[in-house]
Structure formats: structure tokens, C-alpha cells
Amino acid sequence: MQIALSQINYTIGDLDGNVDRMVVDIRRARSEGADLIVFSELSICGYIPKDKLNYNSFIERCSDAVERIKREADAIGVLIGAPVFSNLKNGKRLRNAAILLHNREVVAEVYKTLLPTYDIFDEYRYFEPNTAFQVVEFNGKRLAITICEDLWNLEVPGLYPVNPMDELAKQEPDIMINLSGSPYSYNHVDDRKMRMCNNASHYNLPLVYVNQVGANTEILFDGGSMFIDATGTIVEELNTFEEDFRLVDWSANATYTKDANDFHDNDIELIHDAIVMGIRDYFGKMKFRSAIIGSSGGIDSALVHALAAEALGAEQVTAVLMPSKYSSEGSVVDALKLAENLGSKTYTLGIQPMVDSVNHTLSDAFAGMESNVTEENIQARSRGLLLMAMSNKFGHMVLNTSNKSETAVGYATLYGDMCGGLSPIGDLYKTQVYAMSRYINRDREIIPIEILEKAPSAELRPNQKDSDSLPEYDLLDRILALYIEEQRGWQEIVRAGFDEETVRRVVKLVDRNEYKRFQGAPILRISHRAFGAGRQMPLVAHYFN
Amino acid sequence: MQIALSQINYTIGDLDGNVDRMVVDIRRARSEGADLIVFSELSICGYIPKDKLNYNSFIERCSDAVERIKREADAIGVLIGAPVFSNLKNGKRLRNAAILLHNREVVAEVYKTLLPTYDIFDEYRYFEPNTAFQVVEFNGKRLAITICEDLWNLEVPGLYPVNPMDELAKQEPDIMINLSGSPYSYNHVDDRKMRMCNNASHYNLPLVYVNQVGANTEILFDGGSMFIDATGTIVEELNTFEEDFRLVDWSANATYTKDANDFHDNDIELIHDAIVMGIRDYFGKMKFRSAIIGSSGGIDSALVHALAAEALGAEQVTAVLMPSKYSSEGSVVDALKLAENLGSKTYTLGIQPMVDSVNHTLSDAFAGMESNVTEENIQARSRGLLLMAMSNKFGHMVLNTSNKSETAVGYATLYGDMCGGLSPIGDLYKTQVYAMSRYINRDREIIPIEILEKAPSAELRPNQKDSDSLPEYDLLDRILALYIEEQRGWQEIVRAGFDEETVRRVVKLVDRNEYKRFQGAPILRISHRAFGAGRQMPLVAHYFN
User: Fold this and answer.
1) Which of B61, B117, B519 sits opposite A519 (nearest CB)?
2) Containing domain of residue B33, as a range?
3) What is the CATH number for B128?
4) Cα–Cα distance between A487 and B195 in angstroms, integer?
5) Is position A172 annotated as part of the catalytic site?
6) How far, in Å, CA of B294 to CA of B288, rounded?
7) Whole-Å CA distances, B178 to B148, B165, B208
């Protein structure tokens, strides 16, 4: 049997567009001799449509879209994903379904059993889990069809009390097919490959695994669809971070070889590709073409500028320099040099007259009071205001330039430097920002070396350095990773060998700044614990972890 | 048997504080002769601690807190709620437990079966559901102990395939006890009473129902704990929106009477009480004492001012008037009169010099371009900046003054009038804002009548009226309620008798403005579909519902 793997960049809710794109691949597969084409989870509507699923009209339009695909399922089997109404007497109103279409008919409907509800996933919010297991006969073969998480419960102990593939294995299938919606994170790619290979070897069955690709708001999908043989060896692997199509010539007893399984987690190159795709897709799907960035001459805005230039084209990125009396001359020079290296347009808008005007307006109210963080925030918010005005007037989207370290400890001004429609590096710790900046410069100096070498500073008061307020980033980031990614309590972190006072201070800063992150821009997710939907903390919580 | 119902305002994660408060009621109950005291769901840590539950250290500290309660469970049974580690081989690592303590021992642990995962609820994110059912023997009686949602599946068809009380009923219990964490919404109170009464009469058993009270960030709990007899009649009902304690003298064959079951949904008084409690608790639990409000002379800021004055004391609320050249004289007069009626301090900060300075800074960049929404937003953001500066300098929390109608259609400026630490009326449609303002004025004119009578205007350009940009609020709010609360698609709304063009326009505005709401302040939830965690829409979604 010839099986086509179709890895597509779906747009959530764009049912017509998604179906048009799927039809292209169905026709191609048929013309190339495929017996079956496999798409990814919820391919009809894109993964994951969230509360759009609560609208009956949405489910009905998805059903119409399945009808369109059905008409194309002629002389080829088509396996798609779609939300469908449940026909059970009790339970939630929807199922997460894989639908096999053939000869313009629905041949089988299979429902997802294991509904991920953790991190960014919330599927039990919408779907009733499957409890009945049945392999599907197709072209004389027995297909064990599962959906994403269904193959993620092989390890003991499992997250779920049931393992769907154990049930299907009893019915002696010939092959496993998994429709997936599995997002990228820098430690997820290897994990996913390992788990899928383990499934193949455990059940001694080949596995067709199809994932979607592309970004939906903050969630990045790398694709990386695979065909794995029954020994657990990856035979075919589709490209990452782009659409792809592959025809697999499968017969149950064939053997394949491949030089090596190319595992490469934690790779700055992959993270880079993920973020570039994330920017490009957010702009493309939001129908924005151009970005605007507050360019401070620091490394964060420099990296965002470089990444945006790659995603959108340098000519579509405008850098706005907004020096104050505390800005060093170097900052302006460096920011201009960066824009020149990239070929982006710049504006320079001095903020001092505006800041002076604000201070004058407040002078009676603040009479006799010391200058403090208020005045620093006024500068940051003046810049935010000017950026947003430029955005409004020219139709550029503001890119936020915050990194994960400062977002974590609240070293940022709400409505000031926290402005923006998208946060491209909000899931990169400062140390990762440096690593990626060096990667950007791998062939030539794009980010001026001066930016990489100077000490980080917000430049909101004379001679300010980040290290005046925060531990050095090497140390800070290690504590943050233990607290945020690893979810260790402060005492555990101290036991891991860190200074107690520092740990307590950092953890308290993280907790106290939930309120700021609550109002932050969407952050492109590249770790397994990004701020946003993946980490849902109460704002009011008198608990020191 | 004498049973004490303890309705407490817990603070999330304040384990020591919560236990201290519980101990007070345990001692009181014992001294008043109670055999058993019942607390609400997850009482040890407060409902709902969200991703704090992911930290093992948090669960361990909860366990320590249970130990403290255990030592108090002397000569009285104590039924509490707490998260506990699961001892199952597979499944999620936690259970949502009710723990019965007696004679300083754990007598029984009962786990929640039905895990609400919809709207603001996300319990399957954390807990493994129960599948084993056992009544608990105590003092010669058989207690059917359930946790909140477990009693919400009586209706057919049910949201869940299993009904825990059906299983427990087979074991011939003498009484039902439900530990609840059931939030207020204006159509939920009657529903809850009806469902609990139906449970009592259906199983022919009395029901002790204990809910928590108080606000945790945006979620408001009304309390309203009850004792219902086996005929389904409410015998005792605890106060709403405040802590309460009641001793119920129960024997299985007693009969009770009460004049009437006082059902009063959709009552502006209850909504008012809910919001006042929400403001008070957010400030109290965040350890803020004072608020600052941008007072425009319009009805939204007037209502927020009045509510905040009630919650915090008028002297703790500062009103900042920030007129521009487009502000009418009436606006300033009305805002000052409001502050005088309430007894709040005011500042007047004219924004024109600042706005002129911004426009001057941008004059080269904007040369030759028409004035448009950019310049309106500059005014709104200038006000936001000044308010935040006042907040920073004086330590007042900014209260956002947006209502649900404008939040829905995006008739608000991000980082401008969308500023604030809390949005007290963001779940009130404009028509409800008027109704509540009239309620505020029920005894005397607090909100000047001029504010109630003038046409709504943002005053960002000459002679601007909201109705220039939006349908009249009476019409707008009806369409919004169908789209947001009722989750009807636009075609359904048109079929309900609304003009197609208007409906399409409104629905598109709601969809297009997800990105603004993503960065909005937490909104006190008083409806069953508030913006925030209860309505999770993708930002990128090419689907027109």
C-alpha cells in the first residue's frame, strides 16, 4: 500500500482555505499512485480552535467542509481530522475525530481517547473521550488509527489509566496511523521521536505519524511527520518548520534502512527556525505585513529586529530609536549600525521633551517627593506611547522585545516596554538571547559586536545596569529554569546548591509579577513551560512556592 | 446529629491563615455541641490554586496543614477539602479530596469524580477522577460525601457518563454532604439551588451543602451554603457575600419548614454586592488599600468610583480628571460633583500640553498625514500614562473603567483606557451599567443625574458620540449577549430578528478585538461568560462565527 503523508500549515477556522489546501495534496497523492493520504489532527479547522468549538455553527461548518473532502475521496482513501458532534446519550457534546473517507463515503470514524489537559492543552474542555476500540479495515489491511496523545501513554506509570493502542493491538492490526497536533518545544522533538519509535517497536508495527506545521498565535508546530518501521527505526522524516509531502511505499513485511536517526534537541538553530516561523505566521495569518520595533541599542531589541527581518524582510521592519538624556551615545550608534547591517528604515524620536512635559504636568501632584521608579516608568511608557502611535498611523505591528528572564522577575514596565502585538523572544532566557544572537552572526556581523559585549542596561537612570537590580543572568537563569520549567519549590532549589537569599528573592519576584504577565503580549512558545496558557497562576496567592 | 456549616473566605495558598480561620470555627462548633463540622472544597488552600498545584512542595505544605487540622479534630468530626497525591498506579498525580478527620485520625478520604473542565474551570488539568464509591460511616450514620460537580449531573442528558450519587445511593446513605467551590454568576444562584433541591428530593435524602465565599482575583464566590431536607426544601441558607456559620440540628426523620425559598436571580443588588466584594477582596488579598480612577465625567468611571468607594471607603479612592481640549465643561463639573458627593479626593491634570508635546515629537514622522484614530489613541494613552505614574508614586491601584459592551467590540484603547490592575465592571454591559448606577442612586443622588442622562461619548474628538461608531447600546447589548453568553452564530442571531448588516458588523468587531482583550486587566466575573479564562478564543482565527 502506498501512503501519502501530508504536512500542512493550517489556519484556525479557515475551513475553505484549509480544505482547498488539502484538496491539492489529495489530487497529488492520487496522481502519484497513493492508496491512502493521511492528514493531521483536526486538520479541517486547524489545531486548536479553542472556544470556537463551543459554537454549534462552527461544528456545522466543519461538517460541511468534511463533505467537500468526501467528494474528493475518489479512488483514494483520505484520513482527516475534524471535530464532530457526539452521538452518545451522555457526556460532552463533541468528539475529536479521525474520519476515513473512501469512494466518497465515510468508511470509519475514530475518536480520541486520551485528551491532553495540561500545559497549553485543554482538550477535555471540549471533547468526550473514546472508550470503544476498533481497528479499521482498508484495502485488505487492518489500520490501528489513533490521535496524537493516544500514543503517549506507553510508559509506566502512565498519565492515563487506559492505553488505547493496547486495546487495538488485540485486534491484530497491520499498521499504526497517528494523526497528530504536536507543538514544538526545544526538549519535545527528541522526546516525540523516541516515544513514537518506542511505540513501533513495542507493538512491532510500522507507524505513520502526521503532524501539522506552522504557528497558531503563540503555539509553534514544527511538523516533522514520520514513517517508522516495525523495528522502531525512522524511515522517512518530513521537513521541519515548513509544509511537506511524502509518499511512503509500505508493505507490512518490507524492511528499510536509514543512516542515522537525526536527533538534535536543544539546538539553537531549531529554536531560531521556530521563532522565525512564528513571527511570519502571526503576521501572515493576522494579515499584517510590517513590524515596528523600539530599538534601544540593547541585545533584546537587536535580536528581535534581526529575527523579524528574517521573517518579514528587513524592508518591512522599522526601527524606532527613542533616546532620552540617560541613553548612552553608544546605544544610538549601535542601533543605527544594526539597522544599516540589516537594511531597515529607522526613525529617531527623542523622548526628552515629552518626558519633561509629563513631569511638568505631574509637578504639583508630586511636589516634594523623591524621584523614583515612577520617573523610570514614565520614560518606558513614553516610548510605548510613541511606538503605538507609529503603529496606529502606519499599520505596522509593534513587536515586543522582552526576554523570559526579565518577564519572569518583572523587570519591565507594564504598558511601556511590555507593549506589543507579539513577543518573539519572551520564552528565551537572557543567556539564550546571547546564544541566538551569536547564531545570527554565524556568517557575518549582523548584530554589532558592541551590542553583544556591553553590560545589559535599561538606561532609565544614570549609569544603570541590570546587575544593580538582579543577579547576574548566568545565575538568574539557572534559578528561573528550576523554578519555572522544572517547577521546583524554593527549598528544593536551595538544596540544589544555590544561595538561599538569592533564591528566595528571585522566586518572590516571579510570584509578585504574575499581575504584569497577565497583561502581557502573546509569547512565542519554544520551551515546555512558557508564560501564557501553559502556566496558569493565580494573581492572588499568598504562597511562596 | 448536629452539623456545623462553615462558610469561609479563603485566600489561595495562605495555608497558615486558612487553617487558623478553620480552627476558630472548629472550636466554636465543638463548644456549641456539633458532632461534625463541614468546610468547602479545597478549603485548606482555597479554590482554585491553579498551577500552584503543579508544585510538589505546594501539595506537601497542604499535607502539613491537614496535619494541623487533624490535631484539632478532637471530640468532633471535621470534614475538609484538600489536594492530595494520588496513590493509583496510573493517572494524574493528584486527587481533589474530601478528608474526614475524627479523634485526631483520618477516618476517610473521598475523591471528586466529576471534574469540571469548561468555562473558568480546569480541574482535569490537575486531578485524576474518582471511580470507586463508598459511603462513610460516622457516629452510626452513613454519609454520602461528594465534592461540588459530583452533584451536578442529575439531569438527562448529563455532561458526564457517570453519576456518583447514583452509586452512593445503592449503599443506603442517611445524608448527603457536598463540599463545594461554586462561583457566583447572575444566573447561577437559582440554578444551583434548584439542582441541589432536586438532588435532595430525587434521592430522598437531606443535603448539607457548604460553599466558600469571597473573591479570588476575578472569580467571585457568593457562599449561600444550605441545608436542604429530604423533600427538597431549603431549611437553612447561609448569608451571601460574607462569611457565615450555622449549626444544623439534623436527625434523619426530622421535618423542617421555611416560609419560602427565596430565589432571586438576575438581581442588580446581588451583582452589586458581588462586585463590591470582588474589589474589596482583590485589594485586601493583594495588600493594596487605595485606588485611583481616571474620572471622565462619564457613567462608567462614575460607577466604578461609586463601587470602589463602597468597597474601600471614599477616602481611599482618588479621582483624576484629565481633560483635553475636546472635554466638555460638563464632564469636569460632573466628575467633580461625583467626587464631592462621595467624599473622594481629586486631582485635575490637563493633558493638552503632553498631547501637544507627543504630536510635536511625531510631527516629522507624520508629516502630510491626516489626523485619525492615532491622535485619539494618543489622548487615551496619555491619560493611561498619567494614571500609572500616579499609581506608581502613591501606591494606589488603578481601577479600569471599561464595560463589557466596549470591551467586546474593542471600543477602547490598549494601554490607554484599558489600563488598570482590575476591571470591576468589565462583565457588565452598558445597559447594566445604567441599571446599576440607578441602583447606586436608590436612596440619594450619588452619581449626578447629568451623568446618567447625557449621551455616552469618549470625547476624543469634537462632538463625538459612541453612537457615531456603534449601534445604540440597547440593540448592541442584545446582539452581544446572544453572541457571547449564548454562543449563537451570526446567522442564528439574524434569524432571531436582528438586522443582518448590524449583526455581521458587531460579530466581526468582537472577533477582531480578541488581541486587545488578551492584554486586558482581570475582569470581575458576574455572568456565565465573562471575558478572561471563561472565554478562550484563538487570536488568529479566520472564522466568522
Assistant:
1) B519
2) 2-251
3) 3.60.110.10
4) 39
5) no
6) 18
7) 6, 11, 6
Look at residue B317 and tell me if it is in a domain: yes
Report if residue A130 sits inside a domain. Answer: yes
In chain A, which stretches have pLDDT less than 70?
Answer: 252-266, 545
CB contact under 8 A, A386 and B362: yes
- Does the structure show a pLDDT above 60 at B5? yes
- Three-state SS string over B89-152 comes to CCCCCEEEEEEEEECCEEEEEEECCCCCCCCCCCHHHCECCCCCCCCEEECCEEEEEEEHHHHC
Distance from CA of A270 to the nearest CA of B (A): 23
Cβ atoms of residues B164 and B146 within 8 Å: yes
Helix (H), strand (E) at residue B303: helix B299-312
| pLDDT for B262 | 54
Residue B112: active-site member: yes
Does residue B261 form part of some domain? no
Question: Do A218 and A306 share a domain, yes or no?
Answer: no
ipTM: 0.93
| Catalytic residue check, A112 | yes
Count the residues in chain B: 545
Q: Shortest Cα distance from A363 to chain B (angstroms)?
A: 10
The pLDDT value recorded for residue B260 is 45
Minimal-distance CA residue of chain A relative to B537: A51
Quote the pLDDT of residue A254: 52
- What angle do helix axes B473-480 and B500-512 make, rounded to 10 degrees? 70
Q: What are the grid coordinates assigned to A168, written together?
A: 487495538
Chain B residues whose CB is inside 8 A of the A378 CB are 385, 389
B63 falls within a domain? yes
Residues A237 and A354 in one domain: no
- Closest-CA distance, B77 to chain A, in angstroms, reads 28
Instruction: Round to whole Å and give the CA distance between B124 and B142.
Output: 29
Of residues A212, A291, A273, the one with CA closest to residue A11: A212
Same domain, A481 and A339: yes
